[in-house]
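Predicting structure from sequence has reshaped protein science. With that in mind, we have picked out one protein's residues alongside their backbone shape tokens:
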Amino acid sequence: MSKKVGDYVKAQLSKGYDVSTIRNVMLRYGYTNKEINDAVNEIYHPTIRHEIHLSHTTVFVIIFIFASLIGVASFFYYTQLKSPTKLLDLNLEPITTTVGAGENIIFLKELSNLGSSKRYDVVIKQEIIDTKTAKVITQKTETRAIETFGSTQTKILVPKDAKAGDYILRAIVEYDDKKAVATLPVKIVVFSKKETCFDGIKNQNEEGMDCGGVCSPCEKQVLECDDSNTCTNDVMEGEACINKPIVPCCGNNICEEQEKESCQEDCKKQEQAAISPETLEGIKELAKTEPSRALQQCNKLEVPDIKDTCIANIGEVQHNKNYCNQINNTRIKDLCFSNIATAVNDNSLCEEISIDSRKDSCYMSFVLDYKDYSVCDKLTNKQLKLSCESLKQLNDLSQQQNNATVLTNQTQ
């Protein structure tokens, strides 16, 4: 057994670590089970040595050989036997992890310093992640000074608008270029509320919402005749409301004979309705083989928005952004760029979009559909950028766990 191995094990035992923890760390750094077992046995069951009288020459030869072996062993193994300066182990223990929205998740956070540095500061980030969307619904960051071993109780407030379901509590400790990560399952539930006369729900034996029965009597409702329709005359006849149609009426979505010249609102809508979805689909189908003829058909359409939608269809079918540039309506043009970007898997086309919110939506489609986290820095909305970065962290963590599983299976 190397003396340095034994010294290292003794040092860790004196810090309060158990043999199992020391063994796991040493195995991770390349020590063999035999080296570790020999060191532990030597500490707890030291070999009893009998005094043997040797001549001076024999003693000198033994010392020379032993010193040579120590020198060679030190040369080859010194860097391996040297314990790391900073090495953290992170563990989470649940206290209260099933709560309602607006309540605190409570857990124990245990940090163990397995390195040789006696004290240093680390940044700890704790976040709650929705397992369905992989979005972070809340997070908490703090700085801790680490010595040997520390256990602290931590609370994280769940947002009041959080939906019921399964979540993940993840803690990440960053130090130097290393990370220690630990997770806990969390459940947010909806606790049943006691029925009252002030809960905004018709329950108990109420005749109406929060009135009648065990609650205060319901007030008699005043009959209201106004149907909010400008194309009717609303009158009371006896105890009944009568809504008499006004003919002709501009605004009823009907192009009446008397309105063809006077009410463009109704007659223009009828003109748009004449362009059936089947017509646009027919032009879109033609665009697959004859885009030039399809464009001619689109240009014959007189309604601007329908014409723009028709041109956008050609651009999407042909995967050609040049058609988008011929569109006047900015909303349809932005949608054209976005659809082509996802169709050809080219997030650079999102940059062509004029409105930031639509541009962010385009980039997020790459995050969710293609797991393309290179666009996180391009997002302008802070919450979306945070979600993108959290999804990236979750994806990286998943890959690390998968790689570890594969490695474990290969070694078994």
